[in-house]
Design a protein that fits this description.
Structural class: alpha/beta
Number of domains: 1
Distance between the termini: 37 Å
Shape: globular
Order of helices and strands: HEEEHHEHEHEHEHEHEHEH
CATH class: Alpha Beta
Mean pLDDT: 92
CATH topology: TIM Barrel
Low-confidence stretches: 1-27
Strand content: 5-15%
Number of strands: 10
Length: 342
């Protein structure tokens, strides 16, 4: 090969390498997850909210997120929501959009018509009155239908959550942790449906208060005892919500210790699937996010997969939510720059 051809080949390799990353964004299934849950985005755009990059120019929110290191999008989905928000159709649309931006995708099943979290796990209205065998079929059919629709649209979710923040279970009352044998069956119907529709997708089970080791050991010991199937342990970490401990430095070591413990105890990968800090304390939130990422990366045997910010673009001026990473000027705060740190 001539020197000119060698130079051309080298230049091509360098060009392709530079294109595979953008301000710290790494592609590929093994890249550390730097994610954003953006379930509000479609509604924000529909109401006319405008997003601005660091330079003050109006931009697609996906571009702004990607320019700040985000490589993964998490989307929640509800069974029969009002106004079609977080419906199957909207979830498919947003998953396709995420793929077009080169993002990886996580799907989060709430198994409700609206929010499901530790304070509420209300059964979808269409499932009310069903006996338990029928309820098992409801979970399987719904889960398969959504994942299959996403796959048919050309997107393969890398991760799927079966339930959202389920320390007390899901789909009450049948799926309460007061009846773990039934909860495990519901989880396994969701797991089986995900694997049938998308065999390569990893299933996540998700518990809040990621710094609380006793909470996780109790929950996942029961999951193991009752044969619940899953691939990844998902944790939430919101220092702002912790009783008497809003300062992340008081709980960050407990988060790291808990991730190390549950990964070893259950032989599973772990991921902080929800995190957030105060929008008006951007430097503190930045520092917290850097520390959380460091803690996840330090989980032995490469089992720490990544960190996902919950609604970073959900500016308080629009949502009244105080834990976004967006300012009143429509731009991301310094906090979002934490995802550019390697």
């Amino acid at each position: 090969m001539s020197h000119i051809k060698i130079l051309i080949a080298v230049a091509a390799v360098l060009f392709l390498t530079s294109c595979s990353s953008q301000k710290g964004v790494k592609r590929g299934s093994n890249a550390f997850v730097k994610g954003a849950d953006i379930g509000w985005l479609k509604r924000m755009e529909a109401t006319g909210y405008k997003f601005y990059g660091d330079d003050g120019t109006e931009q697609d929110c996906f571009k702004i997120l990607k320019d700040h290191g985000i490589n993964t999008i998490r989307l929640r989905t509800w069974v029969n929501p009002r106004n079609n928000h977080n419906s199957k159709e909207e979830t498919v649309e947003m998953a396709v959009r995420a793929k077009k931006w080169g993002m990886r995708v996580m799907i989060n099943f709430h198994y409700s018509d609206s929010w499901a979290d530790p304070s509420k796990q209300k059964k979808p209205a269409a499932w009310e009155g069903h006996d338990f065998p029928t309820l098992l079929n409801d979970v399987y059919d719904y889960t398969y239908d959504v994942i299959n629709a996403i796959k048919n649209a050309g997107v393969t979710p890398e991760w799927v959550q079966v339930g959202n923040e389920t320390p007390g279970g899901m789909i009450y009352p049948e799926g309460s942790t007061s009846n773990w044998p039934q909860l495990a069956q519901l989880i396994n119907k969701g797991y089986d449906a995900v694997k049938a529709a998308s065999p390569k997708s990893k299933v996540i089970l998700h518990v809040d208060r990621g710094n609380d080791s006793a909470r996780f050991v109790s929950w996942f010991d029961n999951a193991r005892k009752h044969g619940a199937k899953y691939d990844v342990i998902g944790l939430s970490y919101y220092p702002w919500w912790l009783d008497g401990k809003p300062d992340y430095t008081l709980s960050i070591d407990d988060l790291a210790a808990n991730m190390n413990n549950v990964s070893k105890r259950y032989g599973k990968e772990v991921m902080v699937v929800e995190v957030g800090g105060e929008d008006n304390q951007a430097q503190n939130t930045y520092d917290m996010l850097v520390a959380v990422q460091q803690g996840v990366k330090a989980v032995p045997n490469g089992r720490g997969l990544g960190v996902i910010y919950w609604e970073p673009q959900g500016a308080r001026s629009w949502s009244r939510y105080p834990l976004s990473a967006w300012g009143d000027d429509g731009r991301p705060t310094k906090a979002l720059d934490a995802f550019l740190v390697e």
